[in-house]
Design a protein that fits this description.
This is tRNA dimethylallyltransferase. Catalyzes the transfer of a dimethylallyl group onto the adenine at position 37 in tRNAs that read codons beginning with uridine, leading to the formation of N6-(dimethylallyl)adenosine (i(6)A). It catalyses: adenosine(37) in tRNA + dimethylallyl diphosphate = N(6)-dimethylallyladenosine(37) in tRNA + diphosphate. By secondary structure, the protein is of the alpha/beta class. The chain folds into 2 domains: about 240 residues, 3-Layer(aba) Sandwich (Rossmann fold), CATH 3.40.50.300; about 70 residues, Orthogonal Bundle (Histone, subunit A), CATH 1.10.20. It has 14 helices and 6 strands. It is globular.
Length: about 325
């Protein structure tokens, strides 16, 4: 194995398994069934679930489910902490050194960071706490708050190729790419072309792709359930603890809308905004998993996992587990 975590031969690479897909598509339900069959813990792959105290709005599984199957890579940092994809991959590989797990979640760039090495471009991706990067980030986050779309517009000016691969509403990815342009003093797409990422693992991805009309209904139902479960109180408690829109975690989907409600917006308008933005986010996730996540083996599942009966779920899990086990054992490429 080379120093950066990549091996010289594809056959020597470790094998990873993941369940991915849009929000509310039933990833956790299927993953638990698969983990039980494959005797694996679940490695959560969600950029909001890594924060302590952000529980209801990030749809963390309950204690009973964690008793059934151990879950790792959640509740890693406090809500005021900065946490990058690089931080995630380091934590993930520390776990993988002890044994395999089933990655589950909707944050595709976290999974990509685990499965592939950084390119030369990412060598400039210093920790978010680095003074120069922190100042750059604060400057552009302030501009984005003043003028929505400012970050992506600047990335388009500096590196049209990088901007074309990032949705205009994905401020986190656009800001990271913009920082890399700044750090390298040239378009980051050129740096990546000179030293592209390489595989550090072989990845099999179970990709949930339910029909959008059904998924939209599931999203609406989940949002309503989060409100009933106490999302407003959760956000109020976080604000009382000193966390607010200054912190990236509190600008996450669902949390920023409830902050607007606490600032005076009606709860009905806030919930409607959560539903609308979640539907948009689900479409961006589908695009990412279809076109940007590089997997060695992909199994697409179109059935609505969240609405399957227990018997139907078990049959689906049996079929997927058999193929997954063969891949992990090296019997399938």
């Amino acid at each position: 194995m080379s120093a950066d975590g990549a091996t010289d031969r594809a056959d020597d690479l470790p094998r990873l398994l993941a369940v991915v897909g849009p929000t509310a598509s039933g990833k956790s339900r299927l993953a638990v069934a698969l983990a039980e069959r494959l005797h694996l813990p679940i490695f959560c792959c969600d950029s909001v679930q890594i924060y302590r105290g952000l529980d209801i709005g990030s749809a963390k599984v309950d204690a009973a489910t964690r008793e059934r199957v151990p879950h790792f890579l959640l509740d890693l940092v406090d809500p005021d902490a900065e946490f990058s994809a690089g931080d995630y991959q380091e934590a993930a590989w520390q776990l993988l050194a002890r044994g395999p797990g089933l990655f589950t979640g909707g944050t595709g760039f976290y999974l990509r960071a685990v499965a592939r090495t950084y390119s030369g471009a990412e060598l400039a991706d210093v920790p978010a706490s680095d003074p120069r990067r922190a100042a750059f980030t604060a400057q552009w986050e302030a501009r984005e708050r003043e003028h929505a779309g400012a970050v992506h517009a600047e990335l388009q000016r500096r590196d049209p190729q990088a901007a074309a691969a990032i949705h205009p509403r994905n401020v986190v990815r656009a800001l990271r790419a913009l920082w890399l342009c700044e750090a390298h003093e040239r378009p980051v797409s050129l740096v990546r072309a000179e030293d592209p990422p390489r595989a550090r693992a072989r990845l099999a991805a179970v990709v949930l792709e339910p029909e959008f009309a059904a998924l939209d209904r599931a999203i609406d139902d989940r949002c309503d359930a989060m409100i009933r479960a106490g999302l407003v109180a959760e956000v109020s408690n976080l604000v009382a603890a000193g966390y607010d829109s200054r912190h990236r975690s509190m600008r996450s989907l669902g949390y920023r809308q409830i902050l607007d409600h606490l600032a005076g917006q009606s709860l009905g308008d806030a919930v409607a905004a959560i539903k609308q933005e979640t539907r948009r986010y689900a479409r961006r996730q589908r695009t990412y998993f279809r076109h940007q996540l590089t997997a060695d083996r992909t199994l697409a599942v179109s059935r609505p996992i969240w609405s399957l009966s227990q018997v139907e779920l078990e049959r689906e899990a049996d079929t997927i587990a058999a193929e997954a086990a063969a891949f992990l054992a090296g019997e399938l490429t």
